[in-house]
Write a structure and sequence with these properties.
InterPro entries: OadB_MmdB
GO cellular component, one term: plasma membrane
Order of helices and strands: HHHHHHHHHHHHHHHHHHHHH
Protein name: Oxaloacetate decarboxylase beta chain
Number of strands: 0
Shape: globular
EC number: 7.2.4.2
GO biological process, one term: sodium ion transport
Number of helices: 21
Radius of gyration: 22 Å
């Protein structure tokens, strides 16, 4: 009987709690969304699997000595994984559309309004009984509005690691829901005539301009906002490797092998933070609500900035492309293109939308640097 009792006590069933069971269910839901609905599958699938692993009783995978614990300490706590992801993203990014029409920088910057609106909203939620966010936690939550998963993970790991799981799930879930969240806002703030505006063909961009751009961005970052240098620096290095044309092997490795391996480890390490104790809280619900608000405000701000520019511009800008400033490359640009085609079957906006889209990537990194400077001290 003692042997049978010992055997029972070492089974997962004997140590299973309702909270762990719920979180295993959450992990399986994330896997389902990734496989069946293809919602950000590259991240949601390993995050969901990591959530299942970390909630298995007695496995100890997220305790000192466990594989998930090691991945988190090595890659997330240090910020290494998100920075390596930014290196790969930089190597995959083409700034031609932005350089051909520099005004798109303003749209990418305007869309970051959602970040700072969410910061205010997170602080305001402290009036709700049972919710209490510090400035650091509010800043980490706010970055969800940048629609940039690696940036959200990096900032939350630096300011509020206890909220990392909820913030990462919210960021990637809402990025996957861009085709659902953005179109109603786009239609509400624009007329069919505005959505049908055709934009002039983009002018060609020289190779010299493409090479100089990441270097100039890095120099400006170093001079004005050093706290954003880790993210922006890795992004610019990846882009310089792409555009220089002399390190194709490194560029292709950053775009493929490196980013693929890091994505697996990053997803598992983030999923490891989805334990019942840290996720099943009132604060998590607040984070999910604030994340949705951030996307709506960011989309609206980008569209309204485009309409404002049209008041002073000789060349008309289709306000839809302002919605692409929330980053979420290239999904937001595709959504813009789809809405443009709905208004006019011959209105192709994809390349134009890529301008504010890649500007949004830089904008979210800069916003993260600002939040880190404000709340990190």
């Amino acid at each position: 009987m003692e042997s049978m009792l010992t055997l029972w006590q070492n089974t997962g069933l004997s140590a299973m709690t309702w909270g762990a069971l719920v979180m295993i269910g959450v992990g399986l839901i994330l896997i389902y969304l990734a496989i069946v609905h293809k919602f950000e599958p590259l991240l949601l699938l390993p995050i969901g699997f990591g959530a299942v692993l970390t909630n298995i009783p007695l496995a100890g995978m997220n305790e000192a000595g466990g594989v998930l614990y090691a991945l988190y300490e090595v890659g997330i706590a240090t910020g290494i994984f998100p920075l390596l992801i930014f290196l790969g993203v930089g190597a995959m990014t083409d700034f031609s559309a932005l350089l051909a029409n520099p005004r798109m920088l303003l749209l990418g910057a305007a869309a970051q309004f959602g970040i700072f609106a969410t910061l205010i909203g997170a602080i305001a939620l402290n009036w709700v009984p049972g919710v209490e966010f510090t400035l650091q936690q509010a800043a980490a939550i706010a970055i969800i509005g940048g629609a940039d998963g690696p940036t959200a993970i990096y900032l939350s790991s630096q300011l509020a690691p206890e909220l990392l799981g909820a913030i990462a799930v919210a960021a990637y879930s809402y990025m996957a829901l861009v085709p659902v969240l953005q179109p109603p806002v786009m239609r509400l703030l624009t007329t069919k005539k505005e959505r049908a505006i055709k934009m002039e063909q983009l002018k060609p961009v020289s190779k010299r301009a493409k090479i100089l751009f990441p270097l100039l961005v890095l120099i400006l970052t170093v001079m004005l906002l050093p706290t954003a240098a880790p993210l922006v620096g890795m992004f610019c290095l990846g882009n310089l490797m792409r555009e220089s044309g002399v390190v194709d092997r490194l560029s292709k490795s950053a775009q493929n092998e490196l980013i693929n391996l890091v994505t697996i480890f990053l997803g598992l390490a983030v999923g490891a933070q989805l334990s019942a104790g840290s996720f099943l809280t009132v604060e998590t619900l607040g984070i999910l609500l604030l994340g949705a608000m951030a996307f709506v405000f960011g989309t609206a701000a980008g569209i309204l900035m485009a309409k404002l520019l049209n008041l002073f511009s000789k060349q008309a800008i289709n306000p839809l492309i302002g919605a692409a400033g929330v980053s979420a490359v290239p999904m937001a640009a595709r959504v813009v293109n789809k809405e443009g085609l709905r208004a006019d079957q011959h209105n192709f906006l994809l390349m134009h939308a890529m301008g504010p889209n890649v500007a949004g990537v830089l904008g979210s990194a800069v916003a993260a640097g600002i939040l880190l400077a404000l709340a990190g001290g």
